[in-house]
Request: fold
Amino acid sequence: MSTLTSPASEDAFVAQQFDDIEQQREAAKLGMWIFLATEVLFFGGLFLGYTIYRFTYGQIFVETSRRLDVLLGGSNTAVLLVSSLLMAFAVRAAKLDQRRMLTWLLIGTALLGCVFMSIKGVEYHKDYVDHLVPGRHFDWHGADPRSAELFFWIYFAMTGLHAIHVTVGIGVMLVLALLAWFGKFSHGNHNTVEIAGLYWHFVDIVWVFLFPLLYLVGHR
Amino acid sequence: MDQFRLFPPQASTTSHEVDALFFALTLISLFFMAVIFLPIIFFSVKYRRGSPADRSNPRSGSFLIESGWTIGPIFLSLGLFAWGAVAYFRIERRPENAIDVEVVGRQWMWKLQHAEGKREINELHVPLNSTVAMTMTSQDVIHSFFIPAFRVKQDVVPGKYTGEWFKPTRTGEYHIFCAQYCGTQHSRMIGRVVVMEPAAYERWLKSGEPTESIVQTGERLFRDRGCSGCHAPNSQFHAPLLQGLYRNPVPLANGTMVTADDQYLRDSILQPGKQITAGYQNIMPSFAGHLSEEEIMQLIAYLKYIGNQPPPSQE
Amino acid sequence: MVSDATEIDIKTAGEFARENYLSVHHGVGSWLLTKDHKRIGLLYLFTILIFFLIASIAAALMRIELVTPQPKLVTSETYNKLFTIHGVLMVWFFLIPSIPTVLGNFVLPMMIGARDVAFPKLNLMSWYIFVAGGALALWSLVHGGVDTGWTFYTPYSTTYANTHVISMAAGVFVAGFSTIITGMNFMVTTHKMRAPGLTWFRLPLFVWSLYATSLIMVLATPVLAITLALISVERFWGVGIFDPKLGGDPVLFQHLFWFYSHPAVYIMILPGMGVISELITCFSRKPIYGYVWVGSASMAIAVLGFLVWGHHMFVSSQSVYAGMVFSILSFLVAVPSGIKVFNWTATLRKGSIHFATPMLYALGFIGLFTIGGLTGLFLAALAVDVHVHDTYFVIAHFHYIMVGGMVMAFMGGLHYWWPKISGRLYPELAGKLAATITFIGFNLTFFPQFILGYLGQPRRYHVYPPEFQIYHVLSTAGASILGVGYLMPLIYFIWAWKHGRVAGPNPWRATGLEWQTPSPPPEHNFEQTPVVTGPPYSYSAEKDVDLDLASI
Ligand code: HEA
Ligand code: HEA
Ligand code: CUA
Ligand SMILES: [Cu+2]
Reply:
């Protein structure tokens, strides 16, 4: 649909090392995919640790998992899924050159990210009050407190790393929203929005894996 | 000064096995070096720039030749792998009817104890031509128990038991090295194995202060540390009897089964909540921090001793 | 006269390109803010040389210390810090970035006829990240060092070492991101920026090898990053993921570490193999024998390399069956390396072999890599590894590959592309001499270590039994010769920068695209984008040219 824009205006966005906008677009997209592959392996180390200890300390992991709040975790899953939907619409809006729409969709995505972080914060606070944060205050009445602590370490490491990614994503969305407002993405230059979208979907997918592994193992 | 040597002494059954493979690998390596280096030298001379050699019709590849030097090494690899694997399997499998030695590594010394109770530090006396099997653990970082003359080595890992065995074939003194980097004095964590004639070994074992055997120490600990308060037939606590336990399957509360090996016994003492025996409450306290690694090994030696006895008729 | 096969325009030979990437901008700022891949390559060269120097001084100190069985020069604590800093700097701050970031950055875009890499800004950023990581590593060095060995094994590194483990791990962590960015950049560049007509099977083999390397960089490095992050967190807050006292498993750390570090050893050899393919063809004036096989072998090594990490853990208490699987896979990963060696050898046949300096390094590479690789088979053979694990046999194995292989290749490549980089030739006679000295010194340093290792000398030993002394003395003698072999090029490269003979665009009459532009190249590499019409390495040995190097 973006064929209405003239080639001349597209050329303005082409960096010197590229021949045309098409090449530049493809390069950026491929770069993002490769980056996401590295991210998968980055989280992969933690997933591997989780899997191994899940097998060694199966019973305890089930019990500890029950202490997590499935309701909060579940609503957070919903929040992220909706935000991904908004992101997908944002990419569409960028392609259709709808400046206002794009700005609002990006802000909406960022807002949902903030909602996610707030719910996460409430959860972390609850864990703290319940003495579930590993370390000196950790207090576990039940079999094998050491393994329980290990579960919470992994829980905090994984969700913490994910939260960092969400935070970065929120920042990116807000910057993009600002740029969008000032018309940076008009005339077919929607590439940046598209690759930021890839990132956001990735962050969403990681959560979709974390949620069952951490929250649902205790529930049949 | 010690004499100049090219090759370590061969002082155990394993050393012959390992050396045989080593020589085979050396031969194969020499073969490949010949196959590669001789042509390089030959071509370098014959086709040096300006030489009158015939350079017409050069080839830039041939499927047949390429497949040849792909498939050849694959088959050779499989053979070498199998050889190494068979020997490795024998090295890693703990043999039956061996002389037991318990080893605890710590920064930076080896503490050893024979089944008869005799203790040694950084030294290990063993009789000629008998199989000696060690059970090892570490109380701090990872170490590795290495006897070059026997071609054996095994990491000694905190929190778990590893084993190593050998059958000496030559009397003499040989090095023990700690092969896994373990901190400042890693290179001083060394010792020696003394391989003795069996009669001399018996004499050595009986020399010095009379000691109680490991099982006896374990039995004493079992009483003194209060294990027997729960794990005795007439205890008021509901705890399992430990006779007939060792190497037998144990049903767990979560419905699975495990075999009661050394590691299981160890975990039962240190992390009783990790695997709860079916039909019992998780009331056993953890003894982590209250028992030294040696004491745990002694207790386990005792548990193994009674564990090999028939289980008592049901109370 | 030039042969028609090479199709090189040598009208401008002997001329120094005045308007080039070095002369267009001036001042420190123009270097620190450059987005030119060529300048970034030089920035990297300068940086990694500093790390190589520091790590070499550590090696020299270790070798001097080991002349006598008892301590003489340093305490055990210092010795342990020396091999740690030597290993960490050599691996992460010298060898991994060496060929990719210097030669790769410099020639990859030119080889595929591009004006720059796909993401020049990221490229510059990766250098800054690298410098930041290096600064952190140096910070911990200056503040007392680290004594864990380059392998950071837990629980020593997390609980018992009282040195600056966190800052060192952070340094490596940060540098890892620069590796990831470089790998990503190279992959995208190779996919999307090739000149018209340059199909995948017309790519120079150096490009293939860099592509395979990038694949590993991108997929393995993040695992190292998370592992190092976990160590730091564990050390700082007492997390129990690896500490047995807290219920963790120290062997899990080893799995994670080697899951990265084994593929990483192929990051450290594949680029070298790529360079050798360029050198062997150019100096025997022949197309490579078995192009497709050599190229695919790089990819096979990269992929299979991910499946063999457990061969570092045969005596770590991992299961016997796991050990067997890792052993057989290690043997299989050796097969593609063999394919390469055989094809290089076959390339020499019916060639017209010029023994220029780069070629001497290339031949040295083949010899030393083969020995190092074959001893890798000893290590992969389970029962033998039980004996030689963590002895000097392993030390000798990897120095044969990393120093005898990769450093040789780096030197060869540096000599080969130096005329392109600087526009001037290095002194050929001095070059040949340095190559020969390096080769001799190298063998004297590391061959005795094979014997030493089989005798049972463990690695990371500050004091050792006196019967091992003779081999240590030989090794140290070799290291002094080797040191001279490294210092010579350093001196004459600097000299040649100003005073070397002007090289012209293509002193080697080589066929790669990077030679079809002036030396030093203009800022955007080519006056106009080249079009490729045929396969690479269209050399002809029958109609050979005289390279006229004797008079340099
Ligand atoms: C650039 C670095 C590099 C490379 C390329 C390699 C390549 C190989 N390595 Fe090496 N290795 C290291 C660097 C490297 N290694 C380092 C740094 C360590 C120690 C880490 C530490 O503990 O600090 C190590 C340790 C190490 C070990 C663990 C030893 C131990 O700690 O006990 C093993 C075990 O299998 C091993 C095997 C191999 C094999 C099989 C190859 C193969 O890829 C080699 C393939 C090449 C050839 C085989 C030669 C050419 C082939 C032929 C001529 C054809 C004939 C072939 C056949 C018959 C198959 N290496
Ligand atoms: C990756 C690249 C790389 C490179 C290039 C080198 C280069 C060298 N290495 Fe390195 N080495 C490693 C990687 C590398 N190493 C790794 C990963 C380890 C394992 C670390 C660990 O266990 O954690 C190791 C360990 C290691 C050890 C084992 C230490 C131990 O376990 O106790 C030794 C011992 O000889 C050694 C020696 C050398 C030497 C002599 C060189 C030479 O090539 C260096 C040549 C340079 C000089 C010698 C300096 C310049 C010369 C002079 C200033 C002249 C005067 C010199 C003398 C009088 C000697 N190295
Ligand atoms: Cu104990 Cu090294
Ligand atoms: Cu390896």
About this structure: Chain C touches chain B through 94 residues (CB under 8 Å).
